[in-house]
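testing teh design pipeline on a random one, pls ignore if ur not involved
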């Protein structure tokens, strides 16, 4: 009598930045199988990843130690079924997987199929399947809408009495209110406010400047559950420029983007718009005035911003000012622009709406999947360590709520 294959995913419910372990048992020895993951996004698009495996002498496949011989990822990759996810064939062009509703989990269907398959998964009966839940909010984390002092945002508060170290979470040129990183940080014990500040309307964008960020900072600082003197700023992409020079750089970038390079697939390579790095101190952040610890995360294959050159310029400015001891730089070969929380699918290219012209383009962000996902995992742990080192030494310790 043939045994029934058994597929286990542990933990099947977890925070998004938590690894899972996928094991298939009760297979015949040296059986070729395909492990497949499938997720339907909030925009109803389907994303998938798959790896080709061969069971061992005991009839088992253990993803954490066994090699994938093909598929959307190869080699030993415990999280390959997440990080190599891509839109299924026939999907819309330029998709990017982003979670909007952080109060519900990302559901991922993991299945095992007989043989090495690369297509036709819906037409084939799976040997076994499991549904996993990936959460951004741990139990007890509270979500609070913020519309005060002209600021639009969302505050995430960890469980417990506080006070909690605070983080002001700011995203880049894509616009809108992005919450998933803030929710995940709150699950690690930080009071985090995600703010919306880059608006699709170019005219609105020119009005956003330092007072808006100062108001947001004060709102977070004045909250009764936030440690007043323990607050960090966390940003990505355009945010560094917006903090000081939005009035200058946004019109410059929007007016010059047509001069940007395009690759053979007509994808926009925007990094050259920012070069050369200005020598005029009035056109950039005065790094010599920084008096707090600073962590830079740099993707060396960033095709959207001149991050390598900008980081080098920042370092030189701080060295000249005598405050370079405050700077830590994490620089990752093969990583692109969009360095997300760990186990997010690598996004090399996606559709992007230009703020001023309203033209929709394909933006090349850069990166190779394997080194990019390594950068995401490594930088996230170091970001958490950096925040804990500099924010948590004078506040009550927090024990993360597990799912």
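output:
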């Amino acid at each position: 009598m043939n045994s029934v294959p058994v597929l286990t995913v542990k933990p099947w419910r977890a925070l998004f930045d938590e690894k899972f372990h996928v094991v298939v048992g009760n297979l015949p020895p040296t059986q070729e199988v395909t492990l497949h993951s499938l997720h339907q996004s909030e925009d109803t698009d389907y994303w998938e990843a798959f790896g080709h495996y061969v069971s061992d002498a005991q009839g088992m496949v253990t993803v954490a130690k066994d090699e994938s011989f093909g598929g959307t990822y190869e080699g030993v990759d415990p999280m390959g079924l997440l990080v190599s996810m891509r839109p299924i064939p026939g999907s819309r062009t330029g998709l990017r997987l982003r979670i909007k509703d952080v109060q519900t989990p990302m559901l991922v269907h993991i299945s095992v199929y007989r043989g090495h398959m690369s297509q036709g998964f819906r037409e084939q009966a799976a040997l076994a399947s499991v549904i996993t839940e990936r959460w951004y909010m741990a139990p007890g984390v509270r979500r609070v809408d913020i519309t005060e002092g002209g600021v639009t945002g969302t505050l995430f508060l960890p469980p417990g009495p506080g006070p909690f170290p605070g983080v002001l979470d700011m995203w880049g040129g894509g616009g809108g209110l992005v919450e998933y990183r803030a929710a995940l940080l709150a699950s690690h014990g930080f009071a985090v406010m995600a703010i919306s500040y880059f608006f699709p309307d170019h005219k609105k964008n020119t009005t956003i400047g330092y007072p808006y960020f100062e108001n947001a900072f004060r709102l977070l600082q004045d909250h009764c559950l936030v440690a007043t003197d323990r607050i960090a700023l966390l940003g990505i992409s355009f945010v560094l420029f917006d903090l000081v020079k939005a009035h200058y750089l946004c019109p410059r970038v929007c007016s010059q983007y047509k001069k940007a390079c395009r690759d053979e697939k007509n994808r926009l390579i925007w990094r050259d718009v920012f070069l050369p790095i200005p020598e005029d101190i009035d056109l950039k952040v005065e790094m010599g005035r920084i008096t707090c610890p600073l962590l830079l995360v740099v993707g060396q294959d960033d095709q959207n911003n001149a991050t390598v050159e900008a980081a080098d310029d920042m370092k030189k400015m701080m060295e000249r000012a005598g405050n370079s001891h405050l700077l830590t730089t994490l620089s990752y070969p093969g990583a692109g622009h969009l360095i997300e929380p760990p186990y997010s699918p690598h996004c090399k290219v996606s559709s992007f709406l230009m703020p001023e012209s309203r033209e929709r383009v394909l933006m090349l962000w850069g990166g190779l999947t394997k080194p990019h996902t390594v950068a995401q995992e490594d930088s996230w742990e170091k970001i958490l360590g950096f925040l804990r080192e500099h924010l948590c030494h004078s506040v009550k310790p927090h024990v993360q709520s597990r799912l």
